Amino acid sequence: MFLLAGLGNPGEQYALSPHNLGFLVVDRLAEQFGIRVTRKDSKALIGLGEIDGHQVMLAKPQTFMNLSGESLAPLMEKHQIEISNLVVIYDELDLPWGALKIKPKGSAAGHNGMKSVIQWFKTSEIVRVRLGIHPGHPIRSGAEFVLAPIKRSQMKELDEFVGFAADAVRTITAEGVEKAMTKFNRRAPGLNNEEA
């Protein structure tokens, strides 16, 4: 079974903030495949189902971003899911808005949610889908920016971006990380795969 975990913060005030892109991608997958992500388990909302013939658990940790590992580690242990079948989806301020980068391993690169996950699992060999949120202009406070509502000017692109990310996650489960990286890693919207 795959555990597809979107990182974010619980609460309506954060629902459409850049920091909740991981939740939005999980919601999109849930909608596409008829999976209800409503069951509480290990400090997360989860839903079990199938994507392209693969058993999956969709999860949205409810611990707040910086404690995400506190939810995912017990969830994985309880359901005996291999770490190689964990995919973590989250926002990345180091990447421009609309960019997507799948990585099979690596550091948290300053992302506190991913840092928590790595600390709890004691390994950085965790597949992750990083979703670029940098607006392309200087920002005063990264912490304020990631928690503020997504700008109206970006809302039109948000639907496409979330759909693109959901397709990337789906491809990881169906075809593996390497193929997904080749197909989906991109610097910004509009670039073809060869340029990304």
Rg computed from alpha carbons, rounded to a whole number of angstroms: 15 Å
Largest sheet: 7 strands, mixed
Tally the helices: 6
Give the number of domains.
Answer: 1
Brief synopsis:
By secondary structure, the chain is α/β, with parallel strands linked by helices.
What can you see in these coordinates?
Mean pLDDT is 93; it is low at 190-196. This protein has a single domain, classed as Peptidyl-tRNA hydrolase (Rossmann fold, 3-Layer(aba) Sandwich), CATH 3.40.50.1470. It has helices spanning 21-33, 68-78, 112-121, 142-147, 152-175, 177-184; strands at 2-6, 39-41, 44-51, 54-61, 86-96, 100-103, 127-134. Strands 2-3-4-1-5-7-6 form a seven-stranded mixed beta sheet, with helices on both faces. The chain is of the alpha/beta class and 196 residues long.
Helices and strands, with pairings:
Blueprint: E1 2-6, H1 21-33, E2 39-41, E3 44-51, E4 54-61, H2 68-78, E5 86-96, E6 100-103, H3 112-121, E7 127-134, H4 142-147, H5 152-175, H6 177-184
Parallel strand pairs: 1-4, 1-5, 5-7
Antiparallel strand pairs: 2-3, 3-4, 6-7
Keyword list:
seven-stranded mixed sheet; cytoplasm; 6 helices; Rossmann fold; alpha/beta; hydrolase; about 200 residues; EC 3.1.1.29; RNA-binding
